[in-house]
TrEMBL record:
Signal peptide: none annotated. This is Ionic transporter y4hA. Keywords: Membrane, Transmembrane, Transmembrane helix. Residues 31-185, 226-367 form the Sodium/calcium exchanger membrane region domain. It is found in: Membrane. One of its GO terms (molecular function) is sodium:proton antiporter activity. Its main location: membrane. The keyword Transmembrane applies. It comes from Nocardia uniformis.
Length: 370
């Protein structure tokens, strides 16, 4: 029974999550039942990403690169909107906190782990500075336009955009993300392949989605099955987040943590699968693909989440605070500078990996103890 579940977990978990959602919807589950809700929520997130990878492997590039990003963004936006609806004005800064946490996790946590693992295996982690530098520049631009400028604009009081400014930020985010995807998958795909990699065929795609390099794409039937299970998993994630939101908020308050810690929890939950995938890929001496995954996730978190939240804000009540505070801006600026110095040589040692991980640790510490 256990072996059967382990072999078919990605198909069983979305169904189990839907059952748990149906049973718990509209109720206040007891503590023991809430543990089951959280387990189902975590399992649904992992299953959703797994099925998105299968669909992406089937459709190939450039659509394949978008499938996983869109699936993860739907999860992130669903969790943000669900908590914003349930908490009202208290969650005005939730989108900002979650997106910023995603940037810190990807650009420092995942990048640091990838470089560390790659350097441990080979002494030096080697990657392509052209593609990685372009990705980092795009992330830095998106983060500045969406999260830094609202602190300094004067059309609205506080760290908020006016309606026209928010629309501009949303459109530019989509444009930059779309151009980057085109460059990565159509115009200059070689800049994003491992330095030691073979021809620019499906090897980079297979490594990105953690398939064997010479594996055949899944059948059309398997892809449609994964698409259906992906939709079930996404419904489970959003619904279970609604059920679990009161417990998350009460747990944060009981622990004496600031409200911004909720955004960190959401980002950690959403980016857990990407973190595991990046480390697995780095252990296979494909650090470039790990960096693509990390920076691509950061880019999608800004370039797709901000427009989605901008649209959702039409119906959501209360302000939408996007501007970062002084401490957060210092961490963001340091991340961009250190990231640029890491990328330029095209190679990194244990030191660079540890520097990024220390920055990530500083972010987590300051999120808990501001």
């Amino acid at each position: 029974m256990v072996r059967y579940f382990l072999n078919h977990w990605s198909a069983l978990v979305p169904i189990l999550a839907a059952v748990v959602l149906a049973v718990s919807w509209g109720r206040s589950p007891a503590a023991a039942a809430m543990v089951l809700v959280f387990a189902a929520l975590m399992g649904a997130v992992l299953a959703a990403v797994q099925h998105a990878e299968v669909v992406a492997h089937r459709v190939g590039e450039p659509l394949g690169a978008l499938v996983l990003a869109v699936a993860v963004t739907i999860i992130e936006v669903g969790l943000i909107v669900t908590l914003m609806i349930s908490t009202g004005d208290k969650a005005a800064a939730l989108a900002r906190d979650t997106v910023f946490a995603a940037i810190m996790i990807t650009c420092n946590g995942i990048v640091g782990l990838s470089l560390l693992v790659g350097a441990v295996r080979r002494g030096v982690a080697v990657f392509n500075p052209e593609g990685t530098g372009a990705a980092l520049a795009t992330v830095a631009t998106l983060a500045t336009l969406s999260l830094v400028l609202p602190t300094f604009t004067t059309s609205e009081p506080g760290p908020v955009f006016s309606s026209s400014q928010l629309a501009f930020a949303a459109v530019t985010s989509l444009v930059l993300y779309g151009v980057f995807v085109m460059v990565q998958t159509v115009r200059h795909p070689g800049d994003f392949l491992p330095v030691e990699g073979g021809p620019a065929d499906r090897s980079g795609v297979d490594a990105l989605y953690d398939f064997d390099e010479h594996s055949e794409p899944p059948t059309k039937r398997a892809a449609f099955s994964s698409l259906a299970l992906l939709l079930v998993a996404l419904i489970g994630v959003v619904g279970l987040a609604k059920v679990a939101s009161p417990s998350i908020e009460s747990g944060i308050e009981a622990a004496g943590l600031p409200a911004s810690a909720i955004g960190v929890v959401i980002a950690l939950l959403v980016l857990l699968p990407e973190t595991l995938a990046a480390v697995r890929i780095a252990r296979r001496d494909r650090v470039q693909i790990s960096l693509n995954l990390a920076l691509g996730s950061a880019m999608a978190s800004i370039g797709l989440t901000i427009p989605a939240i901008a649209i959702a804000s039409i119906w959501l009540e209360g302000p939408l605070m996007l501007g970062l505070g002084a401490t957060q801006m210092v961490l963001l600026a340091l991340t961009v500078v250190v990231g640029a110095l890491t990328v330029v040589p095209g190679r990194a040692t244990l030191l660079q990996g540890c520097v990024h991980l220390v920055l990530f640790s500083a972010f987590v510490f300051l999120a808990v103890s501001p």
